[in-house]
Specification:
This protein is of the alpha/beta class and 177 residues long. It has helices at 3-30, 71-87, 103-112, 126-131, 160-173; strands spanning 60-66, 92-98, 118-121, 138-142, 148-153.
Length: 177
Amino acid sequence: MNTSLSSARADRRGRWIAVGLAFGLFAAAASGQWAPGQPLPDLSTFGLAGLLPDSFAGRVVLVDFWASWCGPCKASFPVLDGLQKKYADRGLVVLAVSVDEKADAKDRFLAEHPVSFAVVHDLAQRLVAAAGISAMPSSFLVDRKGVIRFAHTGFKPESTPAELEREIESLLAEEHP
């Protein structure tokens, strides 16, 4: 094969890869994908089923997206419940957002895995779309000023609990707004 022809094809392929990456980044930004540094949107505008906590103002919030069919979600729930119990008095609020297609799947899961934190259901998938969730579980830690500071995808029992606790401690130690 002619090396100049091969080089031209490689250049074209490289340009298409760059265009694809740029488009992917643009699509992620356009879809409203949540990321550290962005404010947490007003969750009451997404038509979630269930009771949201009265207020997030001045609190550290852990928003966790989960589904009943998700194995790592089952492992994460006791950890999240422990964090809620340990840090609630210092200002932590855990909010779990079920993305199950049917409420009865969510209800069966919660009957088997009862928790002390708030759980809502995103039946219309509006919040999950706005957050750009692509894996379960996915969670976001929000500081007392309402800014997303940390994002997590997946749950690894050997590392995620300590990482969450470290991040929660750092956010709780920050001054109140």
